[in-house]
Amino acid sequence: MIFDPRPIGVFDSGIGGLTVLRELLLAFPYETFIYLGDTARLPYGSKSGNTVRKYSEQNLKFLLSRNVKAIVVACNTASTQINEDFYEGLPVYNVIDPGSHLAALTTKNNNVGILATRATVKANSYEQKIKMQNPLINVFSVPCPLFVSLAEEGWHDDVITEQVAERYLSDLKNKNIDTVVLACTHYPLLKKPIQKVLGPSVNLIDSGVAISLILKIDFEKEKVKRTDQKNAPDQLLICLTDTGLQFENLSTQLLADHTKSKIIFETVSVI
Ligand code: DGL
């Protein structure tokens, strides 16, 4: 067996991709990860497809320059624009394929809700991919742009967030949905208020969990080679395109139970 000690690159516009990184850290504790948060240009969800594509390509290029062995696009909005499975020969994972696959497998009554940014709803990728698996599934998409700011602010279990969720989700509650995809990686941070508003019988799908399952299969197939390290790496590098104390504090809290590595922050330029 050939091993590969190089890191796996993960990127998002901001803090949301940490919900994916957390699952990856739990599933692959000996792998090294490098996270890029494009905080200077957040949010992506209110921007055009062309702009998000340009930013995403710059992020891929940046991670490539850090000698990664694979890249996880831990952002749904960016995933609507990056359709390639490889970039410069490296495997690239988007969050939409596993999320839509899991949603199609989970629904029992064929009514699925998609909560996403405006750009992701506009791109319509979830609806297309879910219907490719089962054309009988009804897909109801709801843009929830304020959820991104609430997640970045750290108001994860807050009465204001619950009120915002009530307002965004009131129509969806009448559609008899049994499965909802948290189709923005920021949204799993708001799982509690979202679940409270939708009710306990609705299954919430989190792309972080789905992508860890796919990566596990690809490690087994050796599409991506495992590290031969037998301990957690010393460092977890988080690169940000703009400095932010709020980001540093929040991410340290969010990752505390998921890694023993020392978190190092670096401000970078991807342009
Ligand atoms: N977390 C990103 C996503 O999954 C988008 C947040 C944003 O920048 O609008 O779509």
CATH topology of the largest domain: Rossmann fold
| Mean pLDDT level | 96
SSE sequence, one letter per element: EHEHEHEEHEHHEHHEHEHEHE
The largest sheet is: 7 strands, mixed
Form type: globular
Provide a count of the helices.
11
Using the 3D structure, state the CATH architecture of the largest domain: 3-Layer(aba) Sandwich
Strand tally, please?
11
**How much helical structure, as a percent, in the residues?**
40-55%
* N- to C-terminal distance: 37 Å
The hetero compounds bound to this protein are:
D-glutamic acid
**CATH class descriptor name of the largest domain:** Alpha Beta
Can you list the strand order of the major beta sheet? 4-5-3-1-2-10-11
Number of domains: 2
- Low-pLDDT stretches are none
Structural class: alpha/beta
Mind telling me the C-alpha Rg? Answer: 18 Å
Beta-strand share of residues: 15-25%
What's a quick, concise take on this entry?
The chain has helices spanning 18-27, 49-65, 76-79, 96-106, 118-123, 125-133, 146-153, 159-169, 191-198, 207-220, 245-255; strands at residues 8-12, 33-37, 70-73, 86-87, 90-94, 111-116, 138-143, 179-182, 203-206, 235-240, 262-267. The protein is α/β, with parallel strands linked by helices and 271 residues long.
Architecture blueprint of SSEs:
Layout: E1 8-12, H1 18-27, E2 33-37, H2 49-65, E3 70-73, H3 76-79, E4 86-87, E5 90-94, H4 96-106, E6 111-116, H5 118-123, H6 125-133, E7 138-143, H7 146-153, H8 159-169, E8 179-182, H9 191-198, E9 203-206, H10 207-220, E10 235-240, H11 245-255, E11 262-267
Parallel strand pairs: 1-2, 1-3, 2-10, 3-5, 6-7, 6-8, 8-9, 10-11
Antiparallel strand pairs: 4-5
